[in-house]
Amino acid sequence: VMVISGSAVFLAAAFTLFQGASGTGNTQVSLLIEGSVLIIYLFSIWIFVYRFEFSLPLVWTAEYIYALLLGGISLLYLLKGKWHNKVV
């Protein structure tokens, strides 16, 4: 519970940034962001479980990876992406 409670702060910010990126109207970029982050998230969980044999609370730290990647990539897209001239 402690791990998930801590990651909830990062997830709230990440979801807000992702919704901002989705709100630009470029659904292909939104799908690319979400899909790539989910692949990395699932791969990190697989590594944590099968390679490092982490305990369950440590496996849940993958939520931080998900939140930081989703928020970071969404923020980069909002700051540097070419969404300003996008016509919906």
Description:
This protein is mainly alpha-helical and about 90 residues long. It contains 4 helices and no strands. It has helices at about 1-20, 25-50, 55-60, 60-80. The longest helix has 25 residues, at about 25-50. It starts with a helix and ends in an 8-residue tail after the last helix. The model has no long low-confidence stretch (mean pLDDT about 95).
Concise overview:
The longest helix is centred in the middle third of the chain and has 25 residues, at about 25-50. The protein is mostly helical and about 90 residues long.
Give the N-to-C terminal Cα separation. Answer: 42 Å
Provide the low-confidence segments as ranges.
none
| Major β-sheet profile | none
Q: What's the Cα radius of gyration?
A: 15 Å
Quaternary: single chain
Helix-strand sequence:
HHHH
User: Helical amount among residues, as a percent range?
Assistant: over 70%
- By DSSP (H or I, 4+ residues per run), the number of helices equals 4
- Which structural class is indicated by helix and strand composition? mainly alpha
What spatial form do the alpha-carbon principal axes imply?
elongated
Instruction: Name the average pLDDT.
Output: 94
Query: What is the count of β-strands?
Result: 0
Strand content: under 5%
Question: What are the main properties of this structure?
Answer:
88 residues, mainly alpha, 4 helices, 78% helix
Topology:
Elements: H1 2-22, H2 27-51, H3 56-59, H4 62-80
